[in-house]
Amino acid sequence: MTQGSLLRQILEYENRHDPYPLYAELRKAPVRNEDDAYVVSTYREVLSLLHDPRVSSDARNLTQSAGIDLQGQQEEETTLPPSFIRLDPPEHDRLRRMTNTSFGPPHEPRRVHEMRGELGGIVSDLIAGIGSTDRIDLVEQFSYPFPVTVICRLLGVPREDESRFHGWADTLAASLDPMPGEDPTERNKVFQKARTELGMYLAGLIEERRKNPRQDMLSELSTLKGPDGSMTTMELLSTAALLLVAGHETTVNLITNGMLTLLRNPDVLERLREDPGLSVPIVEELLRFEPPVQLVPNRTTLADIGIAGVTIPKGASLWLVVAAGNRDPLRFEDPDRFDPDRKHNEHLGFGSGIHSCFGAPLAREEARIALSELARRLVNPRLLEDPPEYRRNAVLRGPRHLPIACDDIRP
Amino acid sequence: MPADGYLERLKREGRIVVVGASLAGLRAAETLRDEGFAGTLTMVGDEPYEPYDRPPLSKGVLLNRTTPDHTALPRRRALDADWRLGVAATGLDMAAKRVRLADGEELEYDRLLIATGVRARPWPHEREAELDGVFVLRTRDDATALQKRLTDGPRRVFVVGAGFTGSEIASACREREIAVTVAERGAAPLVGALGGVVGEVAAQLQRESGVDLRTGVMVTGLEGDSAGRVRTAHLSDGSSVEADVVVVSLGATRNTEWLTGSGLGAGPRGIACDAGCRAFDIRGIVTDDIFVAGDVARSPHPLFGYQFLSLEHWGNAVSQAETAAHNMLCKSVDRRPHMWVPAFWSSQFGVNIKSVGVPSMGTEILISQGSLAERRFVGVYGYQERVIGAVTFDQARWLPFYEHLIETTASFPPPFATVDRRPEGARPVPADFPDPSVPTHGPTVTLSGYSPADRRMTFTPGRH
Ligand SMILES: Cc1cc2nc3c(=O)[nH]c(=O)nc-3n(C[C@H](O)[C@H](O)[C@H](O)COP(=O)(O)OP(=O)(O)OC[C@H]3O[C@@H](n4cnc5c(N)ncnc54)[C@H](O)[C@@H]3O)c2cc1C
């Protein structure tokens, strides 16, 4: 294992605020073998591997040791079965399909569509509650509580329990974000406790919803009986946990990265203020330019795969650096420029293929509403720290705090 | 540089006529404007409607999810065109560069694009075809009439031909709980396009959804009552079916009759063109000012042995139109070939079916992912030890991978393991396509070029 490998450097915290020069370095060899992993960084190659049925998401297919345990405690021993993000077809298809019947596929985004008004309401309340405008931590005061509240409403967590739920979610999210210098065993205990409590809480809620179903996802999933059968309680718990973790940690970063980018590009922010409709291409460009999920680790090859002149051997651990692919000059003209007017912006921000982001329609809607409302209501907003302090996590990358100030908040 | 000067003038003040104002015609026109054509653009269409989309006609419309007048194609940009709608082109004078219209007018052109597509093959017995209650489905008017009749609550619908359109119609009927019988000459639905192995899955889907599916039979006649309404369909096995709606889905005929005698290489198989969408004349010489795109075109494809392919595919119409439009305005060295890998989709009986490549060229099929029994699978077609096509049932997200295999002429059977490969996918089996000389409802890809193995084509010198 070479200490100074590019992969190592990308994982180094000091490079978190701007990994893009390292990605450019990576792309010089589209596929490289580093630290026992095959790192793929160019658009075409990443895209093709995301659609390659010789690539498995199931950890049980991994034969080589993956040099770096990047996920840290996310990969913690757990009694829950793997969620569909870590499964291959047919199990993946079955669970994702069943979850979809309640969430609504992209071409029929019923539930997301119906939530629009509610999303707007949550955003309004959060902005109204900001208080002093001299120093706002956008993460704590806005982009963090927003998606967690949304997940609560979506799953059907009763309002009175939302604050407890936020607490568990905070603890779990913090565990994705190892803090150096803290006692790991102590942290682990806290984390396990939160996990167990959340699990028990959800299990209780599922029991309750089985008896008295409502219009929420937990009810629908727990009473589902279709061509795919129904979900066991364990499957339902791991699905709920997946929705919870994947569904908010990413959106927080999308919104925070979004506001950071807009404040760095005041002309675009100004245009957004004039025309909220611009939020659609802005969010797409953000997903290319500053994707919340920077890389997709832990895929495994089921066969030797020849790609870009390299043969990736069977059983290898594969890391697909989507954020590097998103800035591949062979695919995107002037890739380091933030350009909401970009055409044919088929970014990899949501991945692609069968594991492409399940919550994409919701994430898009949340980010659009959040950013256009912030643009409209904050008067003369400005960054107080640039770059801000980042979270440690290299996979789910985003600021831990985003201190900003503004002159006033419009009604 | 006289040629350059000509192109500059063409772009600035030339006259371009597009015949066929549907998908290919519209997308070509938009591309012309995108690429800087500022001259006169005339769109000729024999239907009275602005360009509309056909796939929803057999899907959304029959399910009452949308109405035929809501199928207008979205516009990518403003066109500034002179629309001649409801007027057919009736002739072409290549020497004088004029298109004759049904109303007697003549349009001069510097460049002509032909995108007249295909029309539904009607029921061959004229009197029977005119019975009230007998339909075809190709146009907006067809869909309006059929939709209305389905909403009236027919006792039974009888579909002749189980190709994609026929199967989609049957699917819509079942979803609306209308009794439906489907008669197919081949051994199973979709066999012409996808072969017998996949056809068998389609047959099961239909039967389980309550379709009264009759395969291996021909419809010998349609009978009406004294009021001229269709009542009974007679089949070659001696049976008959009582139905008050009959939909004839026997494939399509290319709209080339209006070119008869023009000297253009146009016939029942379509209009032959080169890879750059330039039409051939009957002497096999490529024209410089006449281009073709969409269902009416047949063009050679390098991935498929330079066979001339006629494709009845939405995506092909778009891509070929864009290429044709580009090539109409540029120097020969800047022309692009139309090398689109054929791709097609359909949705029926709750299943999303997609294909790439030319499955109907395949001799063998291997189920590389999923399983036929679950009706969720990827089938890979092999031809002379290479991958030539693929089909997915509810597995569309994998398709780009298989498209890449086709494009790179990967070997067949694919030697590697894939996620979700089941024991049945260990070995290829015959794909089981019907003998191509036996007409079926028509695949959506037709090999229409000469192949050395094909001795059935005869050369008949013309007598002018
Ligand atoms: C019911 C239905 C469902 C379909 N579903 C799918 C699907 O799921 N997936 C898929 O890939 N494809 C599907 N298709 C095929 C797809 O719609 C066609 O490939 C596409 O419409 C081809 O476009 P085109 O412009 O080449 O031809 P057309 O759409 O046929 O348009 C040709 C136009 O030219 C007009 N015309 C003909 N002759 C003349 C003349 N002499 N003068 C003036 N105008 C003339 C015609 O009336 C017509 O309006 C479907 C087609 C139908 C009918």
UniProtKB/TrEMBL annotation, chain A:
Keywords: Heme, Iron, Metal-binding, Monooxygenase, Oxidoreductase. One of its GO terms (molecular function) is iron ion binding. CDD domains: CYP164-like. The keyword Iron applies. The keyword Electron transport does not apply. InterPro entries: Cyt_P450, Cyt_P450_B, Cyt_P450_CS, Cyt_P450_sf. Belongs to the cytochrome P450 family. This is Cytochrome P450. It comes from Streptomyces marianii.
Automatic annotation (TrEMBL), chain B:
Residues 420-464 are annotated as: Disordered. SUPFAM superfamilies: FAD/NAD(P)-binding domain (SSF51905), FAD/NAD-linked reductases, dimerisation (C-terminal) domain (SSF55424). Keywords: FAD, Flavoprotein, Oxidoreductase. PANTHER family: APOPTOSIS-INDUCING FACTOR 1 (PTHR43557), RIESKE DOMAIN-CONTAINING PROTEIN-RELATED (PTHR43557:SF2). Its cofactor is FAD. Residues 15-321 form the FAD/NAD(P)-binding domain. GO terms for molecular function: oxidoreductase activity, acting on NAD(P)H. The keyword DNA damage does not apply. This is FAD-dependent oxidoreductase. It comes from Streptomyces marianii. The keyword Lyase does not apply. Residues 344-414 form the Reductase C-terminal domain. One of its GO terms (cellular component) is cytoplasm. InterPro entries: FAD-oxidoreductase/Apoptosis (IPR050446), FAD/NAD-bd_sf (IPR036188), FAD/NAD-binding_dom (IPR023753), FAD/NAD-linked_Rdtase_dimer_sf (IPR016156), Reductase_C (IPR028202). It comes from the Bacteria.
